[in-house]
Amino acid sequence: MAGRGRLLSCVCLAVFGLLCWVWVSLASLSDGLPHMEVLDAEERTAFQPQSALSDMEFSSVVSTYRGPGNRDRRRNKELPIVLWWTGGLFPHFPGDTERIDCSTSSCMVTSNRKVQLYKRTTSIIFYGTDFRAYEAPLPRLRHQTWALFHEESPMNNYILSHKPGIRIFNYTATFRRESDYALTLQWLPSLEYLLQPVAVSLQEKNRLRKEGLAPVLYMQSHCDVPSDRDRYVQELMKYIQVDSYGKCLNNKSLPERLVDTSTATGEEAQFMSFVSRYKFHLALENGLCPDYMTEKLWRPLHQGCVPVYRGSAVVADWMPNDHSVIVIDTFPSPKALADFLKRLDENDDEYVRYLEFKDRKHVTNTRLLEALDSREWGVNDMSKPNYLNGFECYVCEQENARLAAERAYSKDPQKNLPPQPKMANYSHMGCPLPSPGYGELQDLPADDGWMQTWPQDYWQSLDQAEGLESLIRHNESNPSLLWKHMQNLAVNRARGKH
Question: What is the architecture, at CATH level 2, of domain 191-372?
Fold first, then answer.
């Protein structure tokens, strides 16, 4: 696998004598429509939304907002167009087209794919979970940029974790702090959410422990995931009592009133009361990637339970203080972790130290505080835009600035520089190769289901990423040629050609 992560050099087209192909052309745009065939939306039935975001409700008043520095008085037909390629994610209601007036400039946004080939359509926004290399809108038009919105687990689309997969985009909004429009704290509504009083007192938790309640809770129904979390938990169970609900490693039944999984995702009161009785919550993400943190981590902190966490390797950067979460990977083995949890279970003074952040004065992480204070979007806060509206405005502002720079350069190239190329890189999304949740890869049996699924998916997605990059580089118009390009790349690789 040594050559799999290689960085393909940008291919500069000497015939045009200007910029790298991945930026797309910076040619001036006219105000009219191009004289070319417009593809019918029905001809490209791609991207069926698979995310809970598809059901998100959006305020109809968002479009009436005008940023404090917006003096853009152009008519709608004069504005650049931003196309949401994943139509089910269009963050406006009703209709499929809207004018947005952002902080300093305005755009038209739409989910109508009929505008894909318009010259005024300067950028296309894709939803990462539903982005498929074999459905990409080709040819990649020289006057358009591509933007990526991907807040979900890396397991949903590993193509974006590879350099050739992510660098086809110009703008990004992902859970990585390095992305252009970072969504790192998307699962944390506010600081007040963390500061809520402990839901169940330590005295009550100790009483429940004496009655037989396990010290550790595990609740999962999505069992086959890249992080291979069940393998680790199964080993941990040999050394400490774990009450496991859900479909994965189940050894306990939920009360009938809580069987509906929607009670968990919606933080229904009875469900929250039930799980908050446990001292420790196993909080293992389904994919391991820097800055990918979900409700599995934030919810126990909110309730006053101690998360036993595996997920983002840099999770400590976002915790309220340096003593609020137990990180699994700091222990040499599941047994060592179990021994530590047993000691905490028996020592009230040590246990409550993990809950000191409930007192505001013990929240010492300035990075967390500044990020919560400065983010422009809100979580369940109608006084702020949601992050979908926020990102489309980011793209709108970037595109207006790019077009203005193009016009200035075209008018007087001696006095003005052309717009600088902008391209996403590995740090905007990159996630590592999945590894076993416990033990070494070489020790797994040949028929191990996880081994046959996720490492293969990771490498196959790299092949697709390289294939799509090749399609774009060769200005192909038929995405079904992806497989041919992948085959050609594999043959050249076998022959030692790069």
Answer: 3-Layer(aba) Sandwich (3.40)
